[in-house]
C-alpha cells in the first residue's frame, strides 16, 4: 500500500508491503530476505512523511477533512472518466471505450497504440505515455471536448 497519491507524499517512502506466508517458518525466511534487499536501499528512511501522516490521521478534524477531500477527488475522477467515455461513444469514435470507466484511480490505459499516442502528443499537445497511460487528473469539463475530438482524430487517422 502506498500513501504517495492519497496524501501527496511523493518521495517520502510512506507505505507498506504485505506478504502472506503459509506458516511462521516461511515468514521468517521471507523476512530475512526482505531485510537483505531493504538494507542497501536505505538504513534510515526519512521520517517527514510519517510525521505528516500522523498529524493528519491522528487528529479527528484533519482526518475528517482529508477523507472528504479524498472522496471529492475520487468522485471527480469518476466523473471525468464517464465524460471521456460518453464523449467518445457519442462521437462514434471507433472502438470499445468501456475500459475507461471500468478502471479506477488517477491513471488510465487508453487502449491507444503507440502511433496514436505519438500523434496526440505531436499534433494535439496531449501528453501521455506511449503505452497509452494517461493521468485522468489532467482532464476536466473545460478541456474534455478538446480531448474527445483529439482522440477521435487520432483513432480515425491512425486506424484501429
Please characterize this protein's 3D structure.
This protein is mainly α and 160 residues long. Helix content is 57%, strand content 4%. It has six helices and two strands, in the order ααααβαβα. Strands 1-2 form a two-stranded antiparallel sheet. Helix 3 packs across helix 6. The two termini are 36 Å apart. 15% of the residues are buried.
Largest sheet: 2 strands, antiparallel
Sheet/helix structural class: mainly alpha
Low-confidence stretches: none
Oligomer: single chain
Report how far apart the termini are: 36 Å
According to DSSP, the number of beta strands is 2
Q: Rg, please?
A: 21 Å
Shape assignment: extended
As a percent range, the share of helical residues equals: 55-70%
Task: Give the spatial strand order of the biggest sheet.
Answer: 1-2
H/E element order: HHHHEHEH
Q: How many helices? A: 6
Beta-strand percentage range: under 5%
Mean pLDDT: 89
Amino acid at each position: 500500500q502506498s500513501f504517495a497519491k492519497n496524501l501527496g507524499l511523493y518521495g517520502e517512502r510512506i507505505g507498506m508491503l504485505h506478504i502472506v506466508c503459509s506458516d511462521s517458518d516461511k515468514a521468517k525466511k521471507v523476512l530475512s530476505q526482505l531485510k537483505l534487499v531493504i538494507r542497501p536501499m536505505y538504513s534510515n528512511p526519512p521520517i517527514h512523511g510519517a510525521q505528516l501522516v500522523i498529524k493528519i490521521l491522528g487528529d479527528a478534524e484533519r482526518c475528517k477533512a482529508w477523507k472528504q477531500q479524498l472522496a471529492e477527488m475520487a468522485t471527480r475522477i469518476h466523473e471525468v472518466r464517464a465524460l471521456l467515455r460518453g464523449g467518445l461513444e457519442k462521437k462514434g469514435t471507433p472502438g470499445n471505450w468501456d475500459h475507461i470507466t471500468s478502471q479506477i484511480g488517477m491513471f488510465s490505459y487508453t487502449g491507444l497504440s503507440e502511433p496514436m499516442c505519438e500523434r496526440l502528443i505531436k499534433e494535439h499537445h496531449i501528453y501521455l505515455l506511449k503505452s497509452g497511460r494517461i493521468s485522468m487528473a489532467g482532464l476536466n469539463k473545460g478541456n474534455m471536448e478538446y480531448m474527445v475530438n483529439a482522440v477521435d482524430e487520432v483513432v480515425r487517422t491512425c486506424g484501429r
